[in-house]
Amino acid sequence: MISVIIPTHNRRNLLEKKLRALEIQNPSEVIVVADGCKDDTLEFLQNYKPAYNLRFLETPSKGAAFARNTGAKAAKGDYLLFSDDDVISKVGWLEAHKHAGSANAVVVGKLVLPKHLKSGATMTGPKAFWWNATGANTSIAKSLFFHAGGYDETFSAYGGEDPDLGWRLKQEGATFVFADRALAEHWDESYEETLLQKANAAGKAHVKVWQKYGASEIAWALGVHPVMLGVKRFTLPLLKPFAKQRIDYETAYMQGALSTLQERDSLGKS
Asked: How far is the CA of 259 from the CAs of 4, 59, 100, 238, in angstroms?
């Protein structure tokens, strides 16, 4: 049995779209964790009665890591499928996760954009790695998830919790599998307006993941090694005329990473 776990925060319309898309998947259990919702999310959940087994939990606003852990603890399934409220499943999504799953596998599904969106976070393979096993579209055996320690709830702001867990799963010897048929669309309609803010936050969070473990492999994989950041400071302004949005994202990410590294250096000197 696989339990679908959905953290949500004040996005009732997207959540409804997601839950209705699950009606064709025939899931055994769906758990929605309402993370400090102040809109009409809870009212909707109380009145929505799908054919599948839907449960919902309410938590204080502590972030996605806390919400996912809460859902995982409540889950009855042997496997957990983490899927954010803006990720809309397509036909065959759940079956593809079931087919690819095993006791030691971390299954990363394919994530694409709907036709009306021109930009957003995607995952198109053909391989999966520890750093891109995100809570958007990833399944894992519950025993493996808890053996690795679950999500680190100290990553309460945007970013960091996914690669942090991915690194620990790698240390546990997990295999990372890309499931092309576990297809979903990423309906992040606020992507462009929040792009730079999220990029900056991710840069900061990923440095903290590196600092937590001290492994240079993490810094290189996440693009926050000082050597890489030095190269980016020189090359990104030169590349901006050719890919403005991408370079703006990389610049904001670099600035977030550098600010966190500088904070560490200043604390070390004090």
From this structure: 37, 31, 40, 22
CA-closest candidate to residue 40, choices 3, 68, 14, 78: 14
Query: Which H/E stretch holds residue 251?
Result: helix 244-269
Residue 23: CATH number of its domain: 3.90.550.10
Structural domain span for residue 125: 2-189
Q: Are 172 and 144 in contact (CB under 8 A)?
A: yes
Domain boundary among 165, 189, 213: 189
For residue 267, is pLDDT > 80? no
| Edge-first strand listing for the sheet containing 175-186 | 54-59, 29-35, 2-8, 79-82, 138-141, 105-112, 175-186, 87-89
11/61 same-domain check: yes
Per-residue pLDDT tens for 60-109? 999 999 999 999 999 999 999 999 999 999 999 999 999 999 999 999 99
Q: How many C-beta atoms surround the C-beta of residue 267 within 10 A?
A: 8
- Same domain (yes/no): 6, 56: yes
Are residue 79 and residue 204 in the same domain, yes or no?
Answer: no
Read off the pLDDT band of 266 (50, 70, 90).
low
